[in-house]
Each structure stands twice: as C-alpha cells, then as structure tokens.
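Module 6 notes. Inverse folding takes a fixed backbone as the condition and produces residue identities as the prediction. Think of it as a translation problem where the source language is geometry and the target language is the twenty amino acids. Below is one complete input and output pair. Work through it position by position during the lab.
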C-alpha cells in the first residue's frame, strides 16, 4: 500500500479488522453476522471478535469472522436515523423513485426476489398493512434484486401488484447493507428510521409505521 493509500484509508477510518484476544472476549454477545442476516438471536457465546473502526464486533462461530473480514462494511449496523443512500430507480409504471419522491412521505422499501419464499410469504401480510394505512399517506415500494429484469417482468405478468415495484438496476441494496432478504427499510421524509432484516413479525413493522405516521 502506498503512502497516499494509507493516508486515504486513515481519513475514511477504513482500518482493517483486527481480531480480539480470546481473554478479552465477553462470555455472551450478539453475533454481528447473524444480526445482519436477520436471524434475530439473543446473545450467544462469543467465540471470536474483531475491532473495526474503533468498535468491537462479536461472532458465534469462527467462520463468521472470515465472512466479516471479507466485507466488514456490509455487517456494520446502520446508525439510525440516516439519510437514504443514493437511490434512483424507475418502477414498472414509469414513476421515478429518487430523493424528491421520498420527500414528505412515509415509505416502506421492501427488498425481495421472485425466488425468495419468505419474501413471497411476507408480501400478503405487508399488503394488509398497506391497505390499512395508505389512506393516511403510507406507501410501499417493492424492490426486486433478481439478477435479470426479464425474470421480474415474467413474474409480474402472472398477477398485478397493488403497490409500486422496481427492479434494482443500480444495486441500491449495497448502500443499505442488505445481506439477506426480505429486508425492509422504513423511510420518513428521506430518512431511514427503522430496519427489519430477515423473517420479520408484521406486527412489529406495523407498530413502527404507526409511530411515524403524521
């Protein structure tokens, strides 16, 4: 690494993850990889840990340390509330969803895929929430991470969805650190205020929506 690269990394706080000595590990902790995957575990035995950007992250098995090290930024929790990262997608009806589209609105972004069974099982439950709160200004945007748009188009041809649907042509999922689906992001006036990863209880989602409605 050149001196320039070292200084650049230092300026961004992009230090390499360093392992925490076994003697310094807590007995129990939340696994950072499991949390990012939406596993919803309680505290587990900490078999390993790393320091990254001044913070400690713990893991329930050693293989997850390697997973974290490959791309640590994916597994670092989002600090909420936060501005919605770069977002500019066009839905199947031609509406552009960019910064202006989220202004003054409460929108649930639902990342899913046509092959994701838990996503498809969750969708009807989210639809009921949408019907209930849409009159109060709530909206839901379903963002497909399918590899090809043609796959999404073929799927949607079998039945129309009542909410806007877009194909993630610009990999917006990376800015929101999506490592598993379903992944839901509640956005109020351009700010991400709540995150739900993995299989999620719709009642918890509804509770957050009610909290942020006008």
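Target side of the pair, the amino acids:
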């Amino acid at each position: 690494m050149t001196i320039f690269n070292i200084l650049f990394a230092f300026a961004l706080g992009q230090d390499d993850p360093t392992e925490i000595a076994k003697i310094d590990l807590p007995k129990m902790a939340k696994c950072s990889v499991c949390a990012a995957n939406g596993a919803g575990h309680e505290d587990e035995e900490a078999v390993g840990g790393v320091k990254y950007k001044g913070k400690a992250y713990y893991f329930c098995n050693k293989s997850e340390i390697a997973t974290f090290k490959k791309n640590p930024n994916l597994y670092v929790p989002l600090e909420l509330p936060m501005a919605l990262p770069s977002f500019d997608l066009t839905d199947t009806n031609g509406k552009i969803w960019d910064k202006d589209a989220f202004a003054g609105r409460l929108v649930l972004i639902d990342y899913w895929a046509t092959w994701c069974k838990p996503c498809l099982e969750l969708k009807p439950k989210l639809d009921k929430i949408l019907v209930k709160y849409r009159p109060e200004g709530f909206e839901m945007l379903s963002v497909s991470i399918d590899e090809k748009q043609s796959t999404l188009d073929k799927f949607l041809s079998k039945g129309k969805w009542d909410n806007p649907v877009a194909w993630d042509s610009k990999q917006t999922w990376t800015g929101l650190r999506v490592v598993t689906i379903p992944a839901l992001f509640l956005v109020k006036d351009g700010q991400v205020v709540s995150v739900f990863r993995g299989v999620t209880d719709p009642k918890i989602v509804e509770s957050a929506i009610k909290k942020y409605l006008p």
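Reference fact for the lab report: The longest helix spans residues 117-133.
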